[in-house]
Write a structure and sequence with these properties.
Helix content: 25-40%
Largest sheet: 2 strands, antiparallel
Strand content: 5-15%
Distance between the termini: 52 Å
Order of helices and strands: EEHH
């Protein structure tokens, strides 16, 4: 299978490089970076990851099993 990269610009799909496909050749497209998240959700996720990294570097961490046990104990 040949992979051809393209980018959407102004609502049009633009190939990132020339292709040797013949005219009339049918292609199937799939979205590579569609995770179903809105831009706001993605920004919140990245902020949460950054907070987690800072917490880890500051020594505020715990074992996963302890964390899950603590979550299970909450009402």
């Amino acid at each position: 299978m040949q992979v051809i990269r393209a980018t959407v610009r102004n609502g049009r799909i633009v190939l990132d490089e020339p292709t040797t496909l013949p005219d009339g050749h049918e292609v199937e497209l799939c979205i590579v970076n569609d995770d179903g998240m809105s831009e706001d959700e993605r920004q919140r996720l990245h902020a949460s990851i950054a907070r987690g990294i800072r917490d880890g570097r500051a020594g505020r961490e715990m074992e996963l099993d302890s964390f899950v046990d603590q979550l299970d104990a909450e009402p």
